[in-house]
Amino acid sequence: MENLVREKRMALGMTQDELSAKLDVSRQTISSLEKGRYNPSITLAFKLSKLFQCTIEEIFIYEEE
């Protein structure tokens, strides 16, 4: 699933380490998420939307297969 995690993180001036600490996940999780190799749990998606102050749909681009 494509996403805008990297763009939103950078807009806030955060590093992957800083974002991972705020979300209580590993930096590797953030890296994999940004590269589209990992789809987050619904809990992590909600945490991201709250942190970025936007909807989940504004972060994750769902494309039907």
TrEMBL record:
GO MF, one example: DNA binding
Highest taxon of source: Bacteria
InterPro entries: Cro/C1-type_HTH, Lambda_DNA-bd_dom_sf
Alphabetical UniProt keywords: DNA-binding
Domain HTH cro/C1-type residues, every copy: 5-59
One Pfam family cited in the UniProt record for this chain: HTH_3
Name assigned to this protein: Helix-turn-helix transcriptional regulator
Biological classification of the source: Bacteria, Bacillati, Bacillota, Bacilli, Bacillales
